[in-house]
Amino acid sequence: MSSKALQREDRSTFGWILLGVKGIASPPALILTTAFFGFAGLCREAGISWQEASFMTAVVWALPAKIILLGAITAGTSLPAAAFAVALSSLRMTPMVVALMPDLRGPKTRTPTLLFLSHFVAVTAWVFAMERMDAVPREKRAAFFGGFAVTLTVINTILVAVVFNLMGQLPALATGALAFLTPVYFLTSLYGSARDISGKLALFCGMAALPPAHWLSPGYELLVAGIGGGLVAYFGARAVKARRGAV
Amino acid sequence: MSDWAYSNVLPWWPYVFILLGGWLPTDMWRYLGVLSANRIDETSEAAALARTIATALVAAVIAQLVFYPSGALAEIPAPVRLAALAAGFAAFQLSRRRILVGIFSAELVIGGWALVAASI
């Protein structure tokens, strides 16, 4: 163990970057890649071009934000309402980055470097980093994280372009089956990572709220169902916790 | 509704739409996280409410894809879509929460329906 630790101390910055790059073969990264196959299918369904789909992957990166943006594009939502819905869904980036910073920051890491690296934070890279960061010497952590997270984004950006174009040759049914990867991936991964009852309730309330929201306010159904369902889930979970506490 | 919505009549508008509707409202939160790392309490009630609404928003998108899809997804009948989602979730739970097992089971339902539909 000590000799292994010593070896790790000896590894160069480039060696740590490479080790990060190798992380794209880890289970969370592979599952995410599966989801991006589905995302490419979804983009095709939404009627945007492959260049737009790849551009969106590179500049937004967080998959839930992209799915919401795509939903807004399909529904014909206006830009301010779309941006507002995406902002609400991406709010969770702040606490995630806040939780990651004490682990990522080394004694000499500059703020511009951290700002650059923060762009690549999304659920998968975050889970990967939080699990493995302890084994990396502090001054090499930015290199290790960058090697993993930047590679993951670049590979999936290219993947979206390739899969999008290959799908032109697939029958509609196969495209539909690929696009269906996305809802199943999100339902299962969000349910699995929910910390407590409020996260699970939010999943079911958000889904249940969509049909009435679709009927009440077409074009804004995502916002209405998300905020409405989220509030119901939040207060519902509080009531459940209060009752459990009282018993 | 049509003004300020997505359209590709102007070649640059989709990219502006993606930047202002996707990049800006996502990266601003990431940058805020870097700059305020010492000042935000991740365990506060406000952070919990934000997490819950963010989850419900994604859930609404899941429901939109299952209940009101467009394109090739719409060619799969609604009961089959619902059954596939339910099968995926059940398999995920029964397999001690393996996402890939869930995805595979949902795709099996769609594949099974396709075989039956093709043979009729």
TrEMBL record, chain A:
Pfam families: AzlC (PF03591)
Keyword Transmembrane: yes
Transmembrane segments annotated in the record for this chain: 12-41, 113-130, 142-164, 170-190, 222-240
Keywords for the protein's UniProt record, in alphabetical order: Membrane, Transmembrane, Transmembrane helix
UniProt key word Oxidoreductase: no
Stated name of the protein: AzlC family ABC transporter permease
Native source species: Jiella mangrovi
Automatic annotation (TrEMBL), chain B:
InterPro entries: Brnchd-chn_aa_trnsp_AzlD (IPR008407)
Pfam families listed in its UniProt record: AzlD
Keywords from the named record: Membrane, Transmembrane, Transmembrane helix
Keyword Transmembrane helix tagged: yes
Source superkingdom: Bacteria
Transmembrane segments: 12-34, 46-67, 73-92, 99-118
Name the UniProt record assigns to this protein: AzlD domain-containing protein
